[in-house]
Fold this sequence. Notes:
Layout: H1 4-11, H2 22-29, H3 36-49, H4 51-60, H5 66-79, H6 98-106, H7 125-140, E1 146-150, E2 164-169, H8 180-185, E3 188-194, E4 200-205, E5 210-215, H9 220-234, H10 236-250, H11 257-263, H12 265-283
Parallel strand pairs: 2-5
Antiparallel strand pairs: 1-2, 3-4, 4-5
Helix pairs in contact: 3-5, 4-5, 9-12
Amino acid sequence: MGWERYETQYDEGVNPKKNADFIGWADDVHQYLDNEAAYAAVAGFAQRGGIPFGIKLVKWCRSTARTAKKLRNAVLEATFPFVFQAGLDSEGSVANDPIEERIRKFVIGEVESPAIVVMDYDPAWPERFRQEETKIRAALGETALTIEHIGSTSVPGLAAKPIVDILVVVKDSGDEASYVPALESAGYVLRVREPDFHEHRMLRTAAKDVHVHVFSPESPEIERYQLLRDHLRENEEDRELYARTKRDLASKDWPSMNHYAEAKTEVIEGIINRAAARRSSREN
Length: 284
């Protein structure tokens, strides 16, 4: 059958990410690589399927043939030009994905691709925070200048991933010796080290259900976390917007949790900007 079969499948509402014939479809694409109309059609197909599907499509079109490269470039340009400027490496990873490159720089240990689950708000989350707060305070004492519940689990009524985020402020987050060993003794594992991002460190529980973010007092991220949390607690409209955004993005396939988080950036920044404007108007 001709190329039109694949356009018909999409028009009939077949989800390309879940298409049982995906592998066969991707192999068949090569039959049409000399068809200029196919380039435009597959680029549109990938664009409608979204970035995660585009990544899969590019992985299937890794041929070194000139036409395969042409198709790949058409897909890249249509689907995610702001992230991917080249093809894939020999392992099938996107070669010039700045998100992936950054992950490999700051993550300690294996890069993970866990399933992203967004669930309804759980009233048990605040109590879980209090339990962890007690444990962190016992481990750090006065070294912990601030311990706060942040992130989506700190906002009553907001759907969230079942991961409790905690903000810990210490005198110098770059001085790991002053707090990391104590937290490790309490059961946390150092997972993230970002010297170029306000000396951010992230430790987590062995179960990966609690993330402890450590910053120094001068980090602007502290105020951003607090501003976002406090605004979402008060503003139902933005709370619902954020919940919809997360559920929609969680329904897609992502190479990593960081890619999912990056996709939320525009919405988060918009909420923070509105929160800042609202605070400014109150102060004036």
